[in-house]
Amino acid sequence: MSLVDTVSAISWRCNHTWKRASVNTLWCLAGCSIGDMGTILFFQLTGIPWPTLAIMTLAIANGLLTSIALETVILSRQMNLALAFKTACGMSLISMIAMEAAMNAVDIAIMGGAKLTLWILPIMWLAGFLAPLPYNYWRPKALGKACH
After folding, report:
1. Secondary-structure breakdown of the chain: helix, strand, coil percentages, each rounded to the nearest 5
2. How far apart are CA 138 and CA 22, in angstroms?
3. Model confidence pLDDT, tens digit, residues 22-38
4. Distance, C-alpha 57 to centroid of its chain
5. What is the torsion angle, in degrees rounded to the nearest 10, for the CA atoms of residue 26, residue 32, residue 37 and residue 39?
6. What secondary structure does DSSP assign to 102-114, as a single string?
């Protein structure tokens, strides 16, 4: 079955799956934001003259790492640390990259570069939440781990 067939074959009306996908996306957003925005803020406060693309690339990498770290801690409540880390690493990299790309695209589009202000944060978080949410809903449905 192709991806298009899988997308059209699942029900997009399962409240339980939307709720679970939303909670998972929020945890990922928290982890990604710590590393991503921490990196941008570091360069903003120190004035180190790196190109915007280099800052954003480093911000994305740090966002992915902090998201994996946070998810490892959360999962370690349910399983041993080694398995929690393996599970966190195996979680959807596609979702995290979409989230990171959306947040940084908003920052560049509105602020003109790697720059944070308090009013831009909610817009970045909204974009970072919405970008991977359909995928985070589809993935458990396609893998048969959500209500049908």
Report:
1. 75, 0, 25
2. 12
3. 998 998 999 999 999 99
4. 15
5. 170
6. HHHHHHHHHHSSS
- Which residues, 6+ apart, have CB-to-CB distance to 53 below 8 Å? none
Gyration radius (Cα) of the chain, Å: 17
Q: Which residues of 118-140 are buried (b: 16+ CB within 10 A; e: fewer)?
A: eebeeebbebbbebbbebbbbbb
> How far apart (Å, rounded) are the C-alpha atoms in residues 138 and 148?
11
pLDDT at site 5: 65
Residue listed under structure tokens 């915007």: 52
Burial (CB < 10 A; 0-12, 13-18, 19+), residue 145, is exposed
